[in-house]
Amino acid sequence: MNAPSDVKCIKVVAAGTVAFSMNFAVAPGASSIFTMPGVSPGSNTFSGEAYSLACASATAATVANWIADPVVATVVSGATTNVTLVMRPAGTVGVGVDFQGGGGGAGIPLGVWNSTNWNNAIWQ
Could you tell me how far CA 9 lies from the centroid of its own chain? Predict the structure, then answer.
């Protein structure tokens, strides 16, 4: 497992009883196998992102160029749990937001959702 030419930083997140993340600096073509100590024992969902910037330059607003499919694994204290994250090139999505009700169009006003009108809602 080696990093592609457009990756300089890999961020791995473990979300269990405690959310924990680590950034790993990587050179293009270098090994992308790391050790992540300090993950909470028990069930954790691991996810990851890879960036073309160095880790020191990456911020919360940095857009990832690779995204990993989430993986669930059980971490055991005193042992190493192996997890493989499969990265895929990130895509771009155009998002449209339609506000229904509240004067913005037909719909059920906020605060009155119940099982009856939920089941009768018309989805477009």
Answer: 15
Q: Are 23 and 64 in contact (CB under 8 A)?
A: no
**Please, which pLDDT band fits residue 101 given cuts at 50, 70 and 90?**
confident
Q: Domain residues of the chain, as ranges?
A: 9-89
What's this model's pTM, rounded to 2 decimal places? 0.75
SS (H, E, C) the chain: CECCCCCCEEEEEEECCCEEEEEEECCCCCECCCCCCCCCCEEEEEEEEEECCCHHHCCCCCCCCEEECCEEEEECCCCCCCCCCCEEECCCCCCCCCCCCCCCCCCCCCCCCCHHHHHHCCCC
Name the nearest CA neighbour of 66 among 84, 89, 48, 85. 89
